[in-house]
Design a protein that fits this description.
Structural class: alpha/beta
Number of strands: 8
CATH topology: Rossmann fold
Distance between the termini: 17 Å
Length: 187
């Protein structure tokens, strides 16, 4: 299963709309995929749970269990103040180490205005590289998101092709890692 993380807790976000588009691409290829939407997680209940705690809210525990079992993660992040949203980093900080990270295939999509989410994707690559995840090299940066995504639909043909290419390539990347028994779920 590939889990697509909609990396903001902002309700009705463009990030969620991009996640839904990516989900359709995986489903069109008959690959199991599901969205983990930060906007639906109870972050207010996390405030009293210390890092590494076994007493996380049940919905957070379920989301982390999905991540721990994932064949791959696609993280879609908007740019907030030159980095990823605080909710995304806070969520990641509660993941189980090393299980959630080590040898886990991860792909990234950034969205924003001028730079298309370049900075948060680079910050996420630093975090996941530090934690020994396998980073898929074909990242996507959605510049001028208000023009590229209109009414929940990708309107730029070149961007649609990039998304298709990333989806196909990421599935091959995961398959290659599994074939050599280098995948987190096999080590």
């Amino acid at each position: 299963m590939i889990y697509i993380i909609s990396g903001t807790n902002r309700p009705n976000s463009r990030t969620r709309q991009v996640a839904e588009h990516i989900l359709r691409l995986y489903k069109d290829k008959t690959h199991d995929a599901e969205i983990i939407d930060l906007a639906t997680l109870p972050f207010n209940e996390l405030a009293s749970a210390p890092y590494g705690s076994q007493e996380l809210p049940p919905d957070i525990q379920k989301a982390i269990a999905k991540i721990d079992a994932a064949d791959g993660l696609v993280i879609i992040t908007p740019e907030y103040n030159g980095s990823m949203p605080g909710a995304l980093k806070y969520f990641i900080d509660h993941w189980s180490y090393p299980k959630s990270f080590e040898y886990r295939p991860v792909a990234f999509i950034g969205l924003g205005f001028r730079w298309g989410g370049l900075r948060p994707v680079e910050h996420l690559q630093q975090v996941f590289g530090y934690r020994n995840a396998y980073i898929f090299p074909e990242r996507i940066f959605l510049s001028n998101i208000t023009n590229v995504l209109v009414d929940g639909k990708i309107t730029d043909e070149a961007v649609a092709k990039l998304m298709e290419k990333q989806t196909s390539g990421f599935m091959k990347f995961i398959s290659a890692l599994k074939s050599e028994k280098l995948h987190s779920n096999q080590i």
